[in-house]
Each structure stands twice: as C-alpha cells, then as structure tokens.
Design goal:
The chain is of the alpha/beta class and 373 residues long. The chain contains ten helices and 23 strands. The protein binds flavin-adenine dinucleotide.
C-alpha cells in the first residue's frame, strides 16, 4: 500500500482528516495515512485573542485530533519533523540518535509559520531568555496563564512587539484582561496592521487610543528582564515582553532539496504541489503559490484545504489533479479585546459590537464543523 504522510496538523490537514473520515465510512482506504504533529490538539489561532481576552476557554479554541484520527483510521506520530530529504522521500523526526526516519510515497506539508528563535535572538539579544513567544501557540497558552496569575497579584508592564494583525489583536486582548497594566504596542518601523488599507489602519489606531494602549513606532533591539531597548529611543521599562513577529519559514526546509521561494517557503503550483517534487504537496503558511502569490493567513490555509484534499486523493490513486485559484480578497475580522471588532474586505471596512458577534459566529461554526469530522 502507498503511504501518504501528513506533516503538521494545520488548518488544511484538519480538513483532510475530516474528508478521510467521511471516505472510510464508504470503503476502507486503499492507502496508508500517517499524521506527524507535535501536539494532539490544534489551537485555532483565530480564537486565541478571544481566549486571552477571557471570552473563550482553551477547550473552546482547541481542535482535538484524536477523534478525527480514529474516524479516519490515520496513524498518529506525536513528533516534530526536523529534516526532510525530498530525493529519498524521507522525513526525520525529532532530535534523537540514531534519527527516526519515515518513508513516504506522497507527502503533504502543513506545518504553518515559525518564530525562528535563533534569528530573533540575533535581532533582539535577550529575547530567548526573557520574552514570551507567540508561536508555537500551544506553548503560548500556558505562558499566558502564568502571566495572568502574576499580573493579578501586581500590575505588570506589558509590551507586545510586532504590530501585524496578530500583535494588534493580542495587545487589545491583554489590555482587556489586564485593565490596570500598561500595555505598549511596539511597531518595528511601520504602522499597526501596515498591510491593511489606510481606512483600517485608522480604525485600529483610533481603537488603540480609545483603549489606552500606547503605540510606539520604533523597532525593539534588545530585551532584558525589566526593560526592552527601542531603536533611537533607549530603554522602556517592561516586565512582560511578548513577541508577535511575522511568519518565518522553518529552517529544516533549507536542506530538503525542495524548491523554495526567496523567503524559504515551499514553492507550490496551482495544484498545491511542489514545483520541484511532484510527490510533495503543501498548503497554509508554509507554502508559497508561485503562480498566484497571496498573504499568509488562516483564511487562505482553510480555503486551500478542499483542493489539497482532492489532489492528495487523486495523486495517490494516479488520477488527474485539479487546479485551485486562491481568492483575491478575503474577509478579515480584527477583534479589539472587548466584544468589539473591525471588519474589512478590500477597500470596504466597518466596525462595531455586531462585527464581533459575526466573527464569534464564524469561529464557533468553524470549530463545530472541524469537531464533527
Ligand atoms: C494570535 C493570532 C491570531 C490570528 N488570527 C487570524 C485570523 O483571525 N484570521 C486569519 O486568517 N489568520 C489569523 N492568524 C494567522 C494564522 O494563525 C495563520 O496564518 C495560520 O495559523 C496558518 O495556518 P496553517 O494551517 O498554515 O498552520 P498552523 O495553523 O500554524 O498549523 C501548523 C501545525 O503544524 C504543526 N507543526 C509545526 N511545526 C511542525 C513540524 N516541524 N513537524 C510537524 N508538525 C509541525 C503545529 O503544531 C500545528 O499543528 C492569526 C495568528 C495569530 C498568531
């Protein structure tokens, strides 16, 4: 039997598992499937700011993989892929000696973005020792619980470093949960949500002001136990520096032999298939559509999932692949801590409590669907 290996339990692979679960209800699969992922549950990032703000429990934002894996008859290996040899069709798992190898006939990668600690440490010495890293999200949640407990005993000075959508949502959420703690958003030389329209940037700035969050345009250049250093400004007192920097490609791809884009993400074609190795597929933030570049976000990962799923089934049984066109515009919903949010799609934008309830409905429906399989 051919062996399909799913590396990472990102948004797209959760969908693949659900599709497999539906398929095995009709007939046993004519191929073997293994999922490799470091955690048996996947935290849905879209709801993480709501968890930090206190609107959702961790369980409400977690997709438990066990039920899906059982229904789909998929073998689960709780591990992290640390190397990939595309020529030998082999993945190395973990850091053990001798290395644990797994051979695949067909591989699908959906491991998401990383925060490369080594690279970040070079940019901001002290980050490794003193900062809270947003990724992996699964490790962030317990860190946040500890921070919350400490901040309830005595106010802490919080700085969120990185002002993309994730950093902004997180700053709003933290300020909502910790109203007595000063929260600063450090923007790294750009405006908050710089990749959004000007109208959305203005809406975000207005909400940040309204909610008492200090916005600093500078870059952070070093992190210490009780302060951070800001480029050209000096030190800012800070007890809890939280790093919410943009997506980076995992280092282990560099030696894989796969064709990568200039930032190191897997270069894929309209079938979500590696442009260099036809037995490798990829979706979500780890992949780059060479023919149709688009932003990295959970929405794009989810939208690519049905095409990825169909093409994996087609490839494993030798059927023709189908191309997929990512949407040009997507709906983006930014929560502002309280039950209030900003919506945008292209040049259109709006805000209000109703936007938050709309986002809440979309997120809960997404979770319910994934849990059903
Ligand atoms: C706070 C926050 C809020 C966000 N809100 C939104 C939002 O509202 N809308 C939106 O569109 N986007 C949002 N994003 C962006 C979104 O999280 C990412 O774009 C999205 O998670 C990418 O999905 P993915 O499927 O590629 O990977 P992920 O969801 O990151 O999943 C990757 C999976 O692979 C596993 N994995 C990682 N490395 C390995 C390895 N080496 N071996 C095996 N498994 C591995 C991980 O454990 C995880 O299970 C948000 C991000 C953050 C941080």
């Amino acid at each position: 039997m051919k062996h399909l290996v799913l590396l990472g339990a990102g948004h797209a692979h959760v969908h693949v598992l659900a599709r497999l679960a539906q398929r095995v209800k009709l007939a046993p699969l004519p191929f073997r499937v293994t999922l490799i992922a470091p955690y048996p549950q996947q935290i849905y990032s879209g709801m993480l700011p709501g968890h930090v703000a206190g609107h959702y429990s961790l369980a409400q934002c977690s997709i438990a993989l066990t039920g899906l894996l059982q229904s789909a008859g998929v073998t689960y290996l709780q591990a992290r892929g640390t190397r990939l040899d595309a020529a030998r069709q082999t993945i190395i798992l973990g850091q053990g000696e001798p290395p644990q190898e797994l051979h695949y006939d067909l591989l699908s990668v959906n491991t998401g973005p990383v925060m490369d600690r080594e690279r970040i440490e070079q940019l901001m010495p002290g980050a490794r020792e003193h900062a809270l890293f947003l990724r992996p999200i699964e490790s962030f949640s317990p860190l946040w619980q500890r921070l919350l407990a400490l901040a309830r005993q005595q106010p802490l000075r919080v700085a969120v470093i990185g002002a993309g959508a994730a950093g902004v949502e997180l700053a709003f959420a933290m300020k909502h949960q910790l109203p007595d703690c000063p929260v600063t958003l450090v923007c790294g030389g750009a405006s908050p949500v710089a990749n959004y329209s000007l109208a959305v940037q203005q809406r975000v700035l207005q909400q940040l002001r309204l909610r008492g969050i200090t916005v600093l345009p500078q870059s952070c250049t070093a992190i210490a136990a009780d302060h951070i250093t800001l480029d050209g400004v000096g030190q800012l007192a800070c007890d809890a520096p939280v790093l919410a920097l943009g997506a980076q490609a995992p280092r282990w791809l560099a030696g894989s032999g796969l064709a990568l884009d200039k930032e190191g993400f897997i270069a894929v074609n309209a079938f979500q298939q590696s442009v260099s190795h036809p037995f490798v597929f990829a979706a979500g933030d780890v992949a780059s559509r060479i023919d149709a570049p688009h932003p990295r976000s959970g929405v794009y990962a989810v939208r690519a999932a049905p095409a990825l799923s169909s093409n994996l089934m087609a490839a494993v049984s030798g059927r023709p692949l189908q191309d997929y066109t990512p949407p040009i515009k997507t709906l983006n919903l930014l929560s502002c801590g309280a039950r209030y949010a900003i919506a945008s799609r292209g040049n259109w934008s709006a805000q209000g409590a109703w936007v938050w309830y709309w986002k809440d409905w979309i997120d809960r429906r997404f979770m319910a669907r994934t849990q059903q399989g």
